[in-house]
Design brief:
The protein is α/β, with parallel strands linked by helices. It contains nine helices and 14 strands. β3 and β4 form a beta hairpin. The longest helix has 25 residues.
């Protein structure tokens, strides 16, 4: 009897998910994955499993990843001390070589391998491939930290049309061939905008935007631009959350239909957000509610 009940529950869950499956099948969903949300290996496998499930039901998944902790680890192994200014990694020539080695190499290929192991077709790219991310110097004092000047989405579109999950590391380059370290959230938002994605999920290690940063129960489920201005003014949105929120609104301005900041450390949060009516973070919209 218990077994029958479990089976019935599973069938009910599948039927409940059908409207959401119909909404996203054939549509582009861009997922930004990185930072502290990538540290736990078990969770990393669960995220890859979510992406493979979406790919299997026909969602055009684009995975954009960072890898800050891994870069810092490699720098430490090489005896180089990380330095940050306003949350951005100061990147001299030696550091940008390390960033390229870690992001486009180890992290990118590991994620591609995980997706392939779980049954998907995936290909890794960096923003330097096909000049996907063109950039210029953001600030001389930061060195090879890039400001995006152009997104060339055609390499991603080509892979999606061939049935692959593009896995993109956030490096950029200029016309002279210089490599740049690009902020992962900014790159993912710009890529989502260039693709006119149906949904952009920015995965982090907190629940979303909180009224009280120490209390997950104070999650703000939806924010308009007008409301965001109030939250900036009263300090609800502060520190590192400010550029994340700005990226979300930039993506909407560029044509993304729906944007969510969500907790990537919760098991299967992607499926909760996309295939249920619960949601798993803070959703952003362009105007007042």
């Amino acid at each position: 009897m218990s077994s029958d009940y479990t089976t019935s529950e599973r069938i009910h869950d599948i039927i409940t998910a059908l409207p959401y499956i119909k909404r996203y099948t054939g549509k582009i969903v861009v997922v930004k994955y990185g930072g502290n949300a990538m540290i736990n290996e078990e969770l990393k496998h669960q995220v890859m499993l979510d992406l493979v499930l979406l790919w299997t039901i026909g969602v055009k998944v684009v995975l954009v990843h960072g890898g800050g902790p891994e870069i810092s680890d490699m720098m430490a192994k090489l005896g180089k001390e990380p330095e940050f200014v306003d949350g951005l990694r100061v990147t001299d020539k030696e550091t940008v070589d390390i960033v390229q080695m870690v992001l486009a190499g180890k992290v990118n290929k590991t994620l591609v391998n995980y997706l392939e192991e779980k049954g998907a077709k995936a290909i890794g790219l960096s923003g330097m491939d096909g000049r996907l991310i063109e950039a210029q110097v953001k600030d001389e004092k930061l060195g090879y930290v890039g400001e995006i000047t152009k997104i060339n989405p055609q390499p991603i579109i080509d892979l999606l049309e061939k049935g692959y999950i593009p896995v993109i590391s956030t490096l950029g380059c200029d016309r002279e061939g210089n490599a740049y370290n690009i902020n992962g959230d900014t790159a993912a938002a710009k890529i989502a905008g260039a693709l006119k994605a149906e949904r952009f999920l920015l995965m982090t290690d907190i629940a979303g935007v909180l009224k009280d940063k120490d209390d997950p129960s104070t999650l703000i489920p939806e924010i308009s631009k007008e409301e965001a201005e109030k939250y900036y003014a009263d300090g609800t949105i502060s520190g590192g959350m400010i550029p994340k929120v700005q990226c979300c609104f930039d993506a909407i301005d560029d044509g993304v239909k729906s944007v969510v900041i969500m907790n990537g450390t919760i098991p299967h949060s992607i499926l909760i957000e996309l295939l249920t009516n619960e949601g798993a973070g803070t959703m952003f919209n362009g105007g007042a509610k």
